[in-house]
Design a protein that fits this description.
Shape: globular
Largest sheet: 3 strands, mixed
Distance between the termini: 68 Å
Bound molecules: zinc ion
Number of domains: 2
Number of helices: 21
Radius of gyration: 22 Å
CATH topology of the largest domain: Neurolysin, domain 3
Number of strands: 5
């Protein structure tokens, strides 16, 4: 094989895929057609290539080994994806066409989620959720079953005992060790979560934890009462000004395209597309206002800055592939400003008391998410552990309901699952970010976002793309390893300190 050609073509393939995503979700192209791109580059995902990279990764050491194992993971993931791409296109079309009848109005299934988050009446929220579940059960689950069953079969066909085993190998992660760490986090935060999340539900929604459903969380997170702090017209200016405070001028940099134009079919949720790393990055936003908008902008902005500051002369593998917990970690690193009292006071011009209350709220929401992902990992280890898929609905419901103490419904057991154990990237990223935060507070202070030194430090970290894994970056900052203890402290500190008045 000509490895140089393989790298060049793989980069061109990923670039085309990213461009297609960008055009579709920014509302500039109606259909999303990935199939054609996959067909044009299909030689990249040949089964023989998997064996070839596996062999090379085994024979090499140091950087050589690292690059070949990144290529092995890329090639295997695309090989699996290619097998189900028609099914995926079909499922996306089915979901886009699905409709729900809500109070006599026929609304798109996807939009019903927005209605759910904005519905103040619990009875009405329950009805919307029930209708959504029926559609998932009746229309989506059949294809989803085939989808996961095919992927499980492919993993076995490649010689692994299960899909879980395959991804643990490709990602070089011990999922069970991470699961054990998250079990400790769950038990250490249990009482605090029960008390404070339960209290929030009662105060804001007037319902008790025992009666709550997952759909009630959507409404809590929507948090309309904070909309007045997070105006849509200030979003991009605040983002740019925050970066300027650290000496980072994205306007001058020129490679991060801030797409803020309003278009009818533009995704309301911010996203980042890395078409050419680092030369052509899109940060797409369509602000509607609210805390969620700001959080998404900071998160996606973190991705954009990471890839936009990656050194152009790094090898393809380090600019496009590698450990995604790293980029998620940098995204969380900017997102954490939403839990920084002083940043809220400085940039949103709110009072000290308002900032304290919001940070308390925001940390509880974060704790909810971290606990949810701990549950997702536990469930996915069972779903993808090699046993038949059927009857996993109850397992899903039991595990997720027990971590969030809210009722999940069985129907989403195949839909609420990301490919390739992406859940572990978020979990490791949260841990990584809480250690990075500890380091930044120690070096630059609580108001790190005001210092040019912080900007220089972050730019240096970003410049390596994903050459180093999250554990390797931490060891360069003198941490021994990824340690969930930092995450527990980071999540609980502000909750414990907040005095309910
Ligand atoms: Zn992200």
């Amino acid at each position: 094989m000509n490895i140089k050609k393989y790298e060049t073509d793989a980069e061109a393939f990923l670039s085309e895929v990213e461009k297609e995503y960008y055009l579709h979700f920014s509302g500039q192209k109606d259909s999303l057609s990935l199939s054609g791109i996959f067909d044009r580059y299909k030689y990249l995902f040949d089964r023989n290539n998997i064996l070839y990279f596996k062999d090379l990764a085994g024979k090499n050491s140091g950087e050589g080994r690292k690059k070949f194992s990144y290529l092995l993971k890329f090639c295997t993931e695309c090989y699996l994806e290619r097998e189900v791409k028609d099914l995926v296109d079909g499922m996306a079309a089915e979901e886009a066409e699905a409709r729900v009848n809500i109070e006599g109005k026929i609304v798109p299934f996807r939009y019903s989620e927005v209605l759910l988050a904005n519905e103040e009446d619990k009875t009405k929220r329950d009805i919307i959720e029930e209708k959504r579940n029926k559609i998932i059960d009746k229309h989506f689950n059949k294809n989803l079953y085939t989808y996961w069953d095919t992927l499980h079969g492919q993993a076995k066909d490649l010689g692994f005992s299960s899909y879980s085993d395959l991804f643990s190998y490709l990602k070089e992660e011990d999922f069970f060790e991470l699961d054990a760490g998250m079990d400790r986090l769950l038990s250490e935060t249990q009482l605090l979560y029960e008390k404070h999340f339960g209290g929030l539900l009662e105060r804001e929604l007037g319902i008790k934890l025992e009666r709550s459903k997952r759909s009630d969380f959507a409404f809590i997170k929507r948090a309309k009462k904070y909309d007045r702090f997070f105006a849509k017209d200030s979003l991009t200016a605040i983002f740019k000004d925050t970066l300027l405070g650290m000496g980072i001028d994205i306007q001058k940099q020129g490679n991060i395209n801030l797409d803020v134009e309003e278009r009818e079919n533009k995704s309301p949720r911010a996203f980042c597309s890395t078409v050419r790393v680092p030369q052509e990055i899109y940060l797409v936003v369509m602000p509607i206002g609210g805390q969620d908008d700001y959080e998404a902008m900071l998160h996606e902005g973190g991705h954009a800055l990471h890839f936009g500051n990656t050194k152009a002369d790094l090898d393809f593998e380090y600019r496009y592939l590698g450990d995604n917990a790293v980029t998620e970690g940098y995204a969380f690193c900017l997102e954490q400003l939403m839990q920084n009292r002083q940043w809220l006071i400085d940039f949103l011009r709110i009072t000290d008391a308002e900032a304290k209350e919001f940070v308390y709220f925001s940390n509880i929401v974060k704790l909810w998410f971290v606990r949810r992902y701990a549950g997702k990992l536990k469930y996915e280890l069972m779903l993808h552990g090699g046993e038949p898929i059927s009857s996993k609905g109850k397992v899903y419901k039991d595990i997720l309901s027990s971590v969030n103490l809210m009722e999940y419904s069985e129907e989403s057991y195949l839909k609420d699952v990301d490919e390739g154990f992406y859940c572990t990237n978020y979990i490791r990223a949260w841990i990584f970010q809480s250690q990075l935060k500890e380091y930044m507070h120690r070096k630059f202070g609580y108001e790190w976002y005001r210092k040019k030194k912080t900007g220089d430090f972050l730019r240096e970290l970003w410049s390596y793309g994903q050459k180093y894994s999250s554990s390797e970056v931490l060891s360069q900052l003198d941490f021994k390893k990824l340690d969930p203890g930092y995450l527990v402290d980071s999540l609980t500190e502000e909750i414990k300190n907040y005095k309910n008045s």
